[in-house]
Write a structure and sequence with these properties.
7-stranded mixed β-sheet; FAD/NAD(P)-binding domain; 25% strand; single chain; globular; Glutaredoxin; alpha/beta; 567 residues; 5-stranded antiparallel β-sheet; Jelly Rolls; 4 domains
Length: 567
């Protein structure tokens, strides 16, 4: 059975172009005009309508004349994309929010008359008209796919496989942000290094579309300069602030925003959480051929944007304060790492868990540069025709094995238990047994990582827990899937936790000094809820997390409509 991606690829190119750049009929243009808040604007021939990198660019609907749509990468190479005529419109997913435009447009040789719809009015049109909503959303998504395929946007320049370059690649890839990667050892890479006079210690380099150079930037710096991370308003009050952008958090955002609540999603890492790193999720309802975690998170993100949810990544919530001050009984305040405090009527902790690290010698030396905690196409490219090791026996480990095995010479699974049956779904076990280049070492664990003279990972030392015998295995890359610990240290004891650090909810949670929790997903503090993997007793499955995201919105509505109890 073909995957969804394969089925989409079978659509004739002409049909894909028609979907990517649909031309609206007269009746459809009349609907668009009803949602516009301003008059059309006329542009003289060759005039720049908007440029790459501009923020707050509306979608322009062409009424007369023509316009030329183009993209431009950070090396100032401009690529024509499409000639727009009457009934065509500009924009891609960034036009759903206040993010820098990834494309630009100029009026054609006869000039152009176009009608602008800003982000709010565009979203209103998409939600308000089922016919146009489907047509426009499909076009915006397919245009982003096209930009990703072209590698438009910023350029990453660095040593292939280095920890910092992989980190930045993963950050941009997980956010579906178009970019180009140049290996500094390639001919073009060496030429660019010479032109920019960049010393090796400054790599990797992020070259922004506006020409700015960022030397070894953090994800936070990259997100800020590229416009991935929005600038939050200090005096804004949100109905719901969601901590975490995994399936639980994104589901909350979709359901809450679609019901008219103002929503802010915060995450200190990357979009999609741990589920976003899954190579293929095959037991999620409605996807019989499976779907990658990256694709699922991307679709959920676009859906949340469609309904007006604001997503701020990477932004870390460092402190939570309940009540206090005027209207304190009605508000929760969150302190953020970079942008100060934000206030909300309700907070949903969907912060999931942190990857558990190996207890092995020399681990830190190779993390990010030989040791990985997820398996995406970025990491898979490093493994082609190599011998690799994978530690773990859960479903995430099984999905990674199935994804990586066809690309490697040999893959060794290292499992602490007596087998896979206790922790892995049967379909994955059966599939792994059919892979001839995969072997499973049971009752074993990694005790040391070893490198060669250049500092590159070359193998692992494994001990058999039953016999005590050690062995040395060759491995250029090691993937670690040994579970996770709840991401609750930032709460600093303000919420009741179980003995393992997961958040207690509902009847599990002890009474609060102010208001006893009466809702199933409510924590020990009123107006604060917990869902997904971080919640004590939750089912660690994507479907369960999405279900809790829907359920918590109903409970928030119930809480917001209830009278406030004084402290």
């Amino acid at each position: 059975m073909r995957t969804q991606e394969q089925l989409e690829a079978m659509v004739p190119a002409s049909d894909r172009s028609a979907q990517r750049f649909p031309r609206l009929r007269e009746a459809q243009l009349n609907v668009v005009k009803r949602f516009a808040g301003t008059e059309p604007r006329r542009f003289s021939p060759g005039t720049l309508i908007f440029d790459v990198g501009e923020r707050g660019v509306p979608s322009w609907f062409v009424l007369e004349g023509s316009a030329d749509l183009f993209s431009r990468d950070a090396l100032n190479q401009e690529t024509p994309l499409w000639e727009l005529e009457r009934g065509d419109f500009t924009g891609e997913l960034h036009q759903l929010g206040d993010m820098p435009s990834l494309t630009g447009a100029r009026a054609g040789p006869d000039g152009c008359l176009a009608l602008p719809l800003d982000a709010e009015r565009l979203r209103s049109l998409i939600v308000g008209s089922a016919e146009l909503g489907e047509l426009i959303m499909r076009a915006l998504i397919l245009r982003r796919v096209g930009l990703l395929e072209r590698g438009a946007g910023p350029v990453l320049l660095g040593r292939a496989g280095s920890a910092d370059l992989l980190r930045l690649q993963a950050f941009l890839t997980r956010h579906a942000y178009p970019h180009l990667v140049l290996d500094c050892s390639s001919e073009r890479g060496r030429q660019l290094i010479n032109e920019l006079a960049v010393p090796p210690e400054d790599l990797p380099l992020l070259i922004c579309p506006d020409g700015r150079l960022l030397k070894r930037p953090s994800n936070e710096e990259a997100g800020a300069w590229l416009g991935i991370t929005p600038k939050l308003t200090a005096d804004a009050l949100y109905d719901v602030v969601v901590i975490g952008s995994g399936p639980a958090g994104l589901a909350t955002a979709v359901y809450a925003a679609s019901e008219g609540l103002s929503v802010l999603v915060l995450d200190g890492g990357v979009l999609g959480g741990q589920a976003g790193a899954s190579a293929r999720i095959e037991n999620y309802l409605g996807f019989p051929t499976g779907i990658s975690g990256l694709a699922l998170a991307g679709r959920a993100f676009a859906q949340a944007q469609k309904f007006g949810a604001q997503v701020a990544i990477p932004v870390v919530a460092t402190r939570l304060r309940h009540g206090g001050g005027r209207d304190g009984a009605r508000l929760v305040e969150l302190t953020l790492s970079e942008q100060g405090p934000v206030k909300a009527r309700a907070v949903v902790a969907a912060c999931g868990a942190r990857y558990r690290r190996l207890d092995a010698r020399n681990l830190k030396q190779f993390e990010g540069d030989g040791v990985h905690y997820w398996a995406s196409p970025v990491e898979a490219k490093l493994c082609v025709d190599q011998e690799i090791a994978l530690v773990g026996a859960g479903n995430s480990a099984g999905q990674a094995v199935v994804f990586l095995a066809p690309q490697v010479k040999r893959l060794t699974m290292i499992v602490r238990s007596d087998g896979l049956e206790a922790s892995m779904s049967r379909y994955l076990i059966d599939r792994i047994r059919l892979l001839e280049n995969v072997r499973v070492l049971v009752r074993s664990e990694v005790v040391e990582l070893r490198g060669d003279q250049s500092g590159t990972l070359e193998g692992v030392t494994v001990i058999n827990r039953a016999s005590g015998q050690t062995s040395h295995l060759p491995a250029r890359q090691v993937f670690v899937f040994i579970g996770a610990d709840p991401n609750t240290t930032w709460l600093d004891g303000c919420l009741a936790l179980d003995e393992k650090g997961y958040i207690l909810t509902g009847q599990q949670s002890p009474d609060c000094a102010q208001v006893p929790p009466t809702l199933p997903l409510q924590t020990s503090l009123p107006r604060i809820f917990a869902i997904g993997d971080v919640r004590s007793g939750s089912t660690k499955r994507v479907a369960a997390a999405v279900g809790e995201g829907a359920a918590v919105v109903a409970q928030i509505h119930s809480m917001l409509s209830a009278p406030v109890t004084a402290a």
